[in-house]
């Protein structure tokens, strides 16, 4: 009896240890695998857009200086004038907004179709969908960022700090601090069948009217995403102007390492914050939203610091040439992210609102890649079962009926509500 009791106690004691080790494994995957690949893809795509989006009147020297001007926090006169005069940045911005809004508007239909397709078809269409969305999303980011640089002028660190404070106030007002979060704190898995679902800012649903739903998606892309871009830009430029502005490498290493250390500490101490957020009752949604927003700000400052540090190091040492470096970084980042099934991490197609989760679980790091990898076998078996059931349904005359587009929209919305 004593032996059995000791064995049971040993199993009971090792289970929490295994959970902690599994959680640390998820953190390492997000920080050391997905995050560098995400930055690599963004940097390569951004440089390629800089190379091809600059109009013909800009010289090759201007093209080459475009990327390094962004890295060093400077603006090249001829490049800026060419882009503003011939709307190079406007083209990428309008292209990105248009494509993203279009894909978001048809997302309920795509989601309903994805639920019915086979596993192989889902993998192919989801990867293609993610790649097109990512290119458009980065086009909007690149165009809006450069347009703000071109039209706002350079007022030094004080101007950037004021702009960052204004952006923070708007994020708190609109409860959008969670929305400007990125890897390594938030990572997505490509095998998630709900990856097409897009939640607009005001929460409109297709069943309330497609015009209302599409307008909500347009407002989400124009207001929320552009506010996200402005927040990142102002904080990024503030770090450029305040942390070793004359030493790019030292500044990049300092922001990268400090951001990583603070994020790891926040990830390890998340239970306290989650429990405190969950202690607020439903009637105290304002206090919970304020607490969540403050926590997201700390996390996002660390995330932007890490992005800035790694981005500058890659631009300085890893193929600094605009075209060759952009092509290599874009291709390597895309292939590796697809290989680790985390390509959907590079963009955000749903607007998350602060304080919506009453249990505080939204404050935890969204480290789904390692979790997703551990469940791939279960999902694969489930997909096979779904395929068999779908074949049986196709053989049944009673279910061989065509669904209208409105039915597909309603079914997707009901599925997400459940």
Automatic annotation (TrEMBL):
Residues 381-403 are annotated as: Disordered. The chain crosses the membrane at residues 21-42, 155-174, 248-268, 289-310, 322-343. InterPro entries: Fuseless (IPR032751). Keywords: Membrane, Transmembrane, Transmembrane helix. It holds the Pfam family Fuseless. Residues 393-403 have a biased composition (Polar residues). This is Transmembrane protein.
């Amino acid at each position: 009896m004593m032996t059995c009791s000791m064995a049971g106690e040993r199993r009971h004691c090792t289970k929490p240890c295994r959970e902690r080790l599994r959680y640390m494994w998820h953190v390492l995957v997000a920080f050391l695998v997905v995050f560098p690949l995400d930055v690599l893809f963004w940097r390569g795509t951004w440089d390629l857009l800089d190379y091809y989006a600059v109009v013909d009147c800009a010289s090759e020297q201007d093209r080459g200086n475009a990327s390094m001007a962004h890295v060093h926090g400077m603006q090249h006169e001829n490049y800026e004038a060419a882009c503003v005069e011939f709307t190079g940045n406007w083209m990428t911005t309008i292209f990105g907004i248009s494509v993203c809004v279009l894909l978001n508007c048809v997302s309920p239909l795509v989601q309903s179709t994805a639920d019915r397709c086979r596993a192989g078809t889902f993998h192919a269409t989801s990867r293609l969908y993610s790649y097109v969305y990512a290119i458009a999303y980065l086009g909007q980011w690149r165009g809006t960022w450069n347009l703000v640089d071109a039209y706002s002028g350079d007022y030094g660190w004080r101007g950037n700090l004021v702009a960052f404070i204004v952006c923070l106030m708007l994020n708190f007002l609109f409860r959008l601090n969670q929305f400007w979060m990125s890897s390594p704190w938030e990572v997505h898995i490509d095998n998630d069948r709900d990856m097409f679902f897009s939640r607009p800012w005001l929460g409109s649903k297709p069943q309330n009217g497609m015009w209302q739903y599409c307008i909500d998606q347009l407002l989400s892309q124009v207001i929320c995403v552009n506010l996200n871009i402005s927040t990142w830009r102002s904080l990024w430029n503030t770090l450029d102007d305040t942390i070793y502005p004359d030493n790019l490498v030292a500044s990049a290493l300092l922001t990268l390492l400090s951001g990583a250390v603070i994020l790891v500490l926040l990830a390890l101490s998340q239970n306290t914050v989650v429990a405190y957020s969950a202690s607020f009752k439903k009637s105290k949604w304002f206090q919970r939203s304020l607490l969540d927003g403050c926590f997201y700000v700390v996390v996002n400052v660390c995330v932007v610091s890490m992005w800035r540090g790694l981005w500058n190091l890659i631009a300085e040492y890893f193929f600094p040439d605009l075209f060759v470096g952009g092509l290599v970084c874009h291709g390597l980042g895309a292939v590796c992210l697809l290989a680790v099934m985390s390509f959907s991490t590079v963009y955000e197609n749903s607007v998350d609102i602060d304080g919506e989760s009453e249990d505080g679980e939204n404050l935890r790091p969204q480290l789904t890649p390692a979790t997703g990898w551990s469940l791939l076998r279960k999902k694969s078996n489930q997909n096979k079962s779904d395929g068999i059931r779908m074949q049986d349904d196709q053989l049944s005359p009673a279910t061989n009926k065509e669904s209208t587009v409105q039915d597909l929209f309603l079914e997707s919305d009901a599925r997400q509500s459940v």
